[in-house]
Every structure is written in structure tokens, then in C-alpha cells.
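Entry for the shared binder. Reason: the reviewer on the internal report wants the predicted structure included alongside the sequence.
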Amino acid sequence: MRCVTCFFTGLTVLSGSPAVYADWAGLSGYPVVAEVRVDPGVIHASLRIRQDMLSGSGAGLADHLLVIRPEGKAPLVAQVEATTLNTSASPPYQQVDLRYSLDATARRLVFTPSPDLPAPLGLVTLQQGVVVNDLAALKTGATLTRDENNPWLSRFDQPTLIRNHSEPRSFLYVEAREVRHELLLRYTDLISIMGQPPTQPDDLAPLGELLRTKNPLLIDGQAVMPHLNRIEWIAWDAGGPKVLAKAGEMAPVSRVLGVVLVYHLDKPAERLTLNWNLFGSNDRRNLMIVSGRESFDTYLTPAQPRLEWSRADSLDAPDTGLQTGYDPDNRMPPDALPDTGRLRTLLQSTLLNTYQAFQLPGEEPAYDRLALGLAGELLSETYRQQRLTWLQNRRGLGGGGTVDQVEIVRCELLEYSPDTRTYTLEARWLTQGTVTHYGHSHPRSRPYQARLTLQPAPDGRWKITRLSSREIDDRG
């Protein structure tokens, strides 16, 4: 069993949820995948070798599968740090972790795959924590020119060995109930604008306040102040962005700040205008706009720092079901009683209103939304939980998930009390939503089952007054 209030926050409070990334190994497409991490004075390489390629341990073979050498010099000699076997993977593989000592003067490194491999080696490379190239095929020798002062400038000489997002960028999500601006920013750029770093490196509040006002967004011609949903240190590994607990976990030159600004709406946005004024040392700001099923890339420069977007130019029609979700219909005439079908509709509207209350920034609007579908002690206790969520979000600790739809799978009438016009129901439903993190968006659904009471309130709405719920196994 879960507590009543926790059930309502099931998808919206995600700060402790594990991120969802694809397996970078990609062993179905490559016989060997190498993740190479280049740092000052040392190189670490992890090779995942398909088990069906080996007759024994891969430790003695690993440094021959990928040869690394400074340009014009002999190959580096690897030391085996660990060997592990993963038989539960499909296909099974051995992982060999190697360590190379690196001369600090070596600026160009040549990566050469073994000519005996039956197919190209898969390679992903990081320079001081910055991804130089996404996972791609290394067919012949390739030269990495590395820049220790600015690892974002490190490059391979082969056009296929690149990263899709060449610099930290913005992601602008245009949704029915909010516009969300997710920013990835180089810390050094922010410090150059502030003039000096914060006294406490991990005190991100001053930077958060700066970013709330730094790049103004007009929605339908009106300036709107955003809610700071989250601010956190971000690092990359081969699987994508990940959150760091402290700045010290990454080299200062490679540090990236992740910021999510949320603009809450009373109705879907028709027009957006973004004025970008935070270029720092980079004269180009890459930006992706996502609206419904459409997305497109663009960029801003100091000469053209203004972005304009209009729904009228979109080929993807807005989801009218989401638009009407601002005030789901859970009203009925005073003396009318719902039939079974109407009970399902009332319950769906009431639940959707409740979930969405946790996505609102202020206490008063959230309470008003909760009161549309809850009453009595259940309203008071749920509001208390919602207020904790709101305070957490104000500190930048909020999650990155939304609930967009509620689907009633089953609704069974257990009891009806004519004196109070109270229905006791056993219901099962699915929450459908989205979890996003800096350009990566994943649909997420969760099933629930509950016994609850539904009855009319003086304002003409039908509301949940008692609820005992549990989140059920996704396989249930």
C-alpha cells in the first residue's frame, strides 16, 4: 500500500528516479565497443567484447583491438585494471578496463582499430568529461586533436566521429499547459558574465535567479516570469547527460549547468519570442523547438539573437484533448445521478485535475486546482503534500515529469448510499506522461488501483472524499 498523498505525486516528483538511457554498448551492431576517456596525463578505455568472438579471456586481446598512439610516436602501452563477464546481456560480452599513461605534451592521438575485426569497432570518446563523438563506427585510423583548455573544441579528423550537439544548447518545449525552456550552459560562460564565481561553488541559487531574467521569453506578446523548476550540475557519459551531486566531481573547464525554466499557461501558447543575450565565449546558441510531434533545430547569434515561433506555422495540429484539460468537466445537474459511464468520466476528470495541481508553481493556484476534485480531509492532506512539492520546486529540486492523460481501465461500483449520494468505487487507471531531461524525452505510464468514494459537493462538482490506493506492478 502507498500513502494517499504519495500516490498523487507518482509521476510528477521524479528527482530521485533513475534516468532512462539506451545501452551505449550497442553490441548488436558492433563486435567491440570502446568508451575512451581522455584526461590530463591518463587515458581510461573500457572495451566491451562480444563473448562469441573470444575463446578465453579478452584481457590479452583488448589493447590489440584498439591501438592508441600519440601522433609520430610509438603506441601507448595499456595496463589491465579489471575484467568482467556479463552473461545476462544480449549478446553476452566481456568488459576489459584499460589504463594508459599519457604525456602531457601529446596534443594529437591516433586511434586505429584492429584489421582482424569482422566489422568496424564502435567508438565513443570523452575529453575531460566532454563527449567528443557519439557512438559511431571506427573503420580506419582517426586522429583526435584535443584541447585541454577547452575540451569542447576537441575534434576527430573524420566527419562521422562527431557529437550531435556540438555545444551546450537550449530545448524549448511548447506544450498545452506550459512552455518549458531547458538550458545547458557552460559554467565558464556564466562566470564571465557574473564577473566572479559564487563564494560557494555549489550554491546555485544566484545563478538560478540570474537565468530567470537573462533571456526573456514573450508568450503571445506578453512578458512572463518563469518558475525555476530545477538547476543542477550536469556531466556527460556515453549514455547521455547525468546529474552530479557537486561541482567538484568534474573539471571546472568541463562543467555544465542544467537549468529548467517553466512558463505556466492559462491557455495553449500561439506565439513565442525568445531574445537570447547569453552568448559568453560562444557566438552561436543552438536551440531545438519541440511542439507536439514536431521538432526542428535552429540557432541564434549576436547579430540575430531573436527567435520567433508561431503555432500557425506548425504542421502538427494541437491536441484538443489536452487543451480542454484545463478545467475537466466533473459537474452534473444538482439532482442528477451518474450512470456507470458517467462515473468513469467524472473519475477521470477528477484524477486529471489532481495530478495537474502538482505541476502548478504557486500555492493558491495549486490549492484551487486540487479543490476542483477533492474534498474534506483528503483535500487538506493532499494539499499539504503538494505544498512540500512546491517548496521543493522553488529550491530547484523539482522533477522533470508531467502527467498529460488519465485512462480509466476499470471502474466497478461497490456500494451506493442514497442518504449522502456517495458512490464507493473500485477503480484501476493508467497515468500517461512524459519525462524529459535536456533533449531526451521518454513517455512514461504507471498503473494504479484504488478504492475511493465519489460524491457531489455544494459547488456542483463531484469530488473524491476518501481514497485508498496502491501503485501496481507494471506487469500487473
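Summary line for the report: Helices lie at 4-8, 62-65, 187-194, 205-214, 320-323, 340-357, 363-370, 376-394.
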